[in-house]
Design a protein that fits this description.
heterodimer; A: seven-stranded mixed sheet; three-stranded antiparallel sheet; 18 helices; 14 strands; 12% strand; B: alpha/beta; pyridoxal phosphate (chain B); PyrdxlP-dep_Trfase (chain B)
Amino acid sequence: MQHEYPRNGESTHPSSKKPKLSSKFITESDIRDEFSHHQQRVARINNGSYGSCPNSVLTAQRHWQLQFLRQPDAFYFNVLRDGITASREIIKDLINADHVDEVSLVDNATTAAAIVLQRIGRSFAEGKFQKNDTVLMLHCAFQAVKKSIQAYVTRAGGSVIEVRLPFPVNSEEEIISEFKKSIEEGKSNGRKIRLAIIDHITSMPSVVIPVKELVRICRAEGIEQVFVDAAHAIGSVKVDVKEVGADFYVSNLHKWFFCPPSIAFLYCKKSTSSSDLHHPVVSHEYGNGLPIESAWIGTRDYSSQLVVPAVLEFVNRFEGGIDGIMKKNHDEVVKMGKMLAESWGTNLGSPPEMSAAMIMVGLPSRLCLDSEEDAVMLRSHLRDRYEVEVPIFHQVSVDREEGVRDKDGFITGYLRMGKLAKCFIRNEKAVIKVGAGFHGITSVFCRLLMRAAFTVFKESYKRGAKSSAEELELLTNVI
Amino acid sequence: MNTTSASAAATPQPFFITPAEVFSEFSHHHPSVARINNGGLGCCPSSLISSQRQIQLQWLRQPDEFFFNQLQPGMLRSRNVIKDLINADHVDEVSIVDNASTAISIVLQHMAWGFAEGKFHSGDATVMFHCAYGAVKKSVEAYFVRAGGYVIEVPLPFPVNSDDEILQEFRQALEKAKQNGRSVRLAIIDHVTFMPTVVMPVKQLVSICREAGIDHVFIDAAHGIGCVDVDMKQIGADFYTSNLHKWLFCPPSAAFLYCRKSNQSSALHHPVVTHQYGNGLATESSWIGTRDYSAQLVVPKILEFVNRFEGGIDGIKRRNHDAVVDMGEMLAKAWGTHLGCPPHMCSSMVMVGLPACLHVSSDQDSSKLRTYLRGKFGVEVSIYYRPPKDGEVGPLTGYARISYQVYNKLLLLLLWFIDISGKYLSLLQPKATTLPLSH
């Protein structure tokens, strides 16, 4: 079936139809089928939080689940371990690790952080580290990681340095410069930095961090170990653990790599200390190395860790495989982000080369987003009233003089747009919905502004293709 | 589906689940395997698998909405169901975790902090039975011993004839610890031991612990709920964990950890730390990052299932117990052996002595026999090697741990077992003296 809807502004006039693509690659109709279980009316542009999983992979998962239920003992003795090893082998190749022993499967990045930090806690308790030895992290580190640091490091007597990253950010140099400054401060008073935790892609606000360079700086500054929290990375940016050079690297496969919830890999570079990492849930495999410990943490459903081969089959149905998907996601999210920012007269939170499959788009200052609570309220309202799922970030103004402005005031809010190209609702519909959402909310404050915005939307939409009657009605209703 | 299930909880059940319906509920089980190891990895009926799938699909459909609006209320509902089942005072005392292994890690990590923060001192002890589950022993090594603690192992007499034999060993071990000047900080007691399987007199053991001034008592009841009576107030322990996927039909995996309200209980944390850290173990455990929580959310549906059986879960427990004891006694008679403990110390599982001519003389032999029975005869059963004690003459060294659950058919199993053991023993003919079988 040919494209039902225009993509990227193409005309669907019969005479301009492209020749039918070979059936070698997945078609749009196939994609719709694969994600038919998604709630159809929702503009799902928050893939970054909980990810998504196609039907063919869910089917593979069910097969594994039923195999276990059919004869669990035989499954445990004869099937499980090999299945997990097969998944680990695939991941090892994807991330360019040297040896499969460096790859453990865990539930999620949160579990991986607990594994690494629990060891830090033990080192304090066992006297290997001194009181006030330090762990360094980014100020925008994921909240669970911050709490894990509190639970394992602060509680054990360690201290924490937060690197304040600039946002919005204009270049990698800005980040590198802040990072170097914080290390200097951290090392003052003779404190030893035992571990640096660096995001590969920060969560909120979302920015791609120059990890390779930061890891190099850590090594140069004598920081003992580096842990890269790359929860969003695999399937979103290129992941080459040898190139990044960190001691520990974790990424969730259920965010951007189509796995069902949940599965993540924790890469641990081979070294003397890596043998002292343990899964916090101890089983009879304790002491056999983290990959083996993690492959059995008591009776549970391991099916999400067994479907990695099926996921690889799925991504290879796309032109260019996972690389092709990553590029398309990036190109489309940047395009969408720019479109919104231009319509609203706001900005992007980072340049395109510092975004992957997610981008931060400045919200009109007239929204008067003054707090975290405002951001949460806005998000709920968009979900409930306009069926748009999009996280909202409240930008705390450190120095009002240096804040970014639109024509009405300081920009204090950003939305994080992150969607899988072609996988859900089509681009324009999502943009319209997002715009409609904001119009509805801001209608009390800035009718004039949003009217202008929607004029722009209408124009770009008309240029794109024919609209359905439903969409014109939607447009007319919101103005 | 059984149309009477809707009224299950509220009114007396006029029509109970039929054998055909039971068969249908477990039709996904391998048809040619005699499954008598329910204590290993449990079982789950089709109707619960379907309910679980619906929950999984709800998440996949719109995960953010599910996270914000449905997940926490769903977990609370599950916890309330469990609270009522186990007679706990307050739902805050009930946390849901993956399995008993996770629960023990939580408690032992708390103990490790006790050492690190100077509340406990190097050499302070934990007391547990020598037959404690392997993962528990490793967890004790990883957290308690590593932090400076000492382990006192209490031998479990086996075969055992009465509760008193166990209580005596326990008292002796505590007395010895006292004489050596050791502070016992934690007692780890199985409610139903794993291998060999015996129902322990937990209430009396907890009393002994209180008399001896032991700080914390943790009951590992991995096999507890759905298998024996579980009453938190009656047992009186500080911590109690049981898997729901072993004997309560939950899909893999879900377990509860009960923590009696005290100053201590608020200091327990889930080792996987999230933004919920500090909000109490129950809340921490209900969000440990993005994962599939469906097995934990389906708990209310379990009641619907068990209430289709006459007597509900109590009826199931009683019938399982009676059937497995019947089976065990028939096999022991056929083989000229004996049961590992008297019927009142059996749950839904029983240890049946294997004929001596099978020459099970090591853990390896027991594994090999198990594999052989699975591969050659389609029988799934755990085998236990019981080392002979000094001075014993001709003891039984091999036992089969047989279980009975609603999907088993007693007579068929017996015939099957006797038949295959006849074939197996005939294969061992050169070693056998007198074949005890006759059928």
